[in-house]
Amino acid sequence: MKKSHITKAMALAFAASIAVGTAPAVYAADGTAEPKVVYSFDFEDGDVSAFTNRGGDDTTELSASTDASVSGDSALLASGRTESWNGPAFRLDDKLEPFTEYYISAKIKGRYYTGAMMSFQYTVKGETEPKYQNLVQNLNGSDWMSVERIKVSFTDEMEGVYVYFEGGSDDLFIDDFVVEEVPAVEIEQDIPGLAQVFGHDFKVGTSLVPNNFSSRATMDIVEKHYYQSLTCGNEMKPDAVLNKAACQAYVEETGDDTVPQISFSAAKPLLNYCKKNNVPVRIHTLVWHSQTPDWFFKENYADDGKWVSKEKMLLRMENYIKAFFEELVALYPTIDFYACDVVNEAWLDDGKPRSPGEQGSGGSQNSAWVQVFGDNSFIEPAFTYARKYAPEGCKLYYNDFNEYMDGKMNAIIEMAKDFKEKGIIDGIGMQSHLDARQSLDAAFPSVNMYKNALKKYSELGLDIQITELDVTTPENPKSGDFDVQAAYYKGIWDAIYEYKDYVSAVILWGVTDDQSWRGKQYPLLFDADYKAKKAFHSIIEGYEVPAEPPTNPPVTPTEPQPSEPTDDPVDNPDVEVTLLGDANCDGKVTIADSTAILQSIGNPDKYGLSDEGTANADVDGTKGITANDALGIQKYDAKLISDFSELSK
Ligand code: XIL
To answer: What is the largest CA-CA distance in the chain?
Structure first.
């Protein structure tokens, strides 16, 4: 961090010039663009007004203090904190531009010991509950800890966007807080796309988190290499989908605590992108011990409630899975949800179930599912319900890491054989979080061990998907470590290719190293500057590049179209139209009505409309309910028409 500081006034002038788009790019001697400082605070002038206290308590105070500092004499001090999530927050969306990347750098210290994190918060427009994401964890030590050039960005669908510091309840000092604008980057167009090389054999995809969508270069890489499949990094996990306040409100209203209330608001950036760009989605994940709140397993969803009975948990599980698929398909009828991890990580390496207990206060091995069920008997109903409610074409997977370790592999295989006979499973998800270490001999698992797992799973006669591929180097890697990583990636990829007749998708767990959950060990195929790494080049070496990249097949919304119209409301003069277009009779006309119509056509026994719904559904006025009525509602929803009478023009 430079000692001479850029004043806030200068920084504000920079920011203003960005807003009107006149700021010149700053170039280094070699012609590459340099990041540009837009805000810089060293707190020497005593002004801390650009920061607010996060957490809503009135005991925390922010002030400039000379008790500790890195540059000059002062730092920002948050004192009187009572909760770990209280701390200084810097708002981004009222000062900076969406779809632009910024680096955040800062120094942070606890008064006696530093145990902090830097996190990111935003609220999806139209929602009330904010979402959080840890950007840097483990800022632990007895002195100042450094956050260096952590990338953040936001889309125009987000508001209340903050970067904040949290952890412990000790006083926190922040100094030398700097925001820089990352220069716009052109990705390499002169390399073949991964999907172009391999996408004719299996889908190639990646996982993304919401702030990836605001990085143009990241999305350019997705468009070129990973457009055949996207997975939410976190946003479709139970802790993101379950809505605690709504769950508790539902109990208040009805006295029923078996119908979990859900929301896909966190997944919106990914789902909207996939809808717009016709990208198939891998759903991750329905039932997991981790990233699932303990209150989901407690009476009345109370944090301090008693564990519920197995019977009640089965009801919650079924209702959760039912709501999950019904709402997803209703909201996004044109997305191809082609795969779903029904259960994640239920077996330990030795083939035993996890230990019972809470996730939060207990060890990371604990599973609240095992606590309630006593063993792994929760897995089968999860698959049974998923089969019952998943849309057609959505294949069901058991997904796990260390999936090549004997004990775990055997447990998975035994379970999968049984489920296959019962017709409730379609495939195995091999997460493939691998470790290249310092040499091919030390890499774990060995390529042979991994290949053996591919062979064993292929013998099941089920599909295989590689669901979360990443390969770590040692921390602080030397150049040679990237050669080892490249050679190991090649070995693993070639093994997968050898089994291509059994493998239907290969999904990387992220795009660029710096955004990875294991970022300190550089596990992905693109570096922080969006350049293809040695590992990328080694993977494609020796493979032909087909002339045409594969395209995603067009999606027929939900169910097949009818040959015959269903009930003719005109034949039933007793039933009146209450609200034209409101096929599901919920009092409004939305895309869900279109889905209800398509579902009723595809499967009238299961999804038949009520008489009133049938009367409402006939929006094109052509007697009888057809896919054309569903299309009419989609046009209305997309504001292509303002009145259904325009359909008959
Ligand atoms: C990881 C995410 O990438 C992190 O952001 C999060 O903090 C923890 O979970 N196995 C899985 C994924 O099935 O859901 C995990 O994703 C990585 C390990």
So the answer is: 84
